[in-house]
Amino acid sequence: MAMNARGHSGWDHSRAHTPAVAQDGVDAHALSTARSRSGSLAVVTTQQGLPVSVRIDNSALAKDPAVLAGEILRLCQQSAMAAGIRLREQLIDSGVGRDVVDAMKLPRSDDLARAEQLDDHDLDAPSSWLRSV
Description:
This is Nucleoid-associated protein YbaB. By secondary structure, the protein is of the alpha+beta class. It has one domain. Helix content is 38%, strand content 15%. The chain has a four-stranded antiparallel sheet. Strand 2 and strand 3 form a beta hairpin. It starts with a strand and ends in a 9-residue tail after the last helix.
């Protein structure tokens, strides 16, 4: 099940990739995507992490709604970080001084890798140690 802001469905982008085609009149370079490791969730966001499109596979719908919402929020945050990393690289490539870019506090690729590792660790942790009897 995939829905974007206008209720259209269907797309699949790789993790932390910029879509090549503009959606709903938004500049395609202003969009970023992130996808769960399992591929059951994917988001397209603005550079600020606001979701433009969310794709949820049926397998993800079986999750607790709060858990699902948390995963979508984390993907939106990771997508925004990926957009910030690309902006950092574009600025440096265009000749902006590293000290100026550093002052902007844009994320680095190791920041995104660290966030993904923390999220993976959190998702692997059991939500409860209690067993049903």
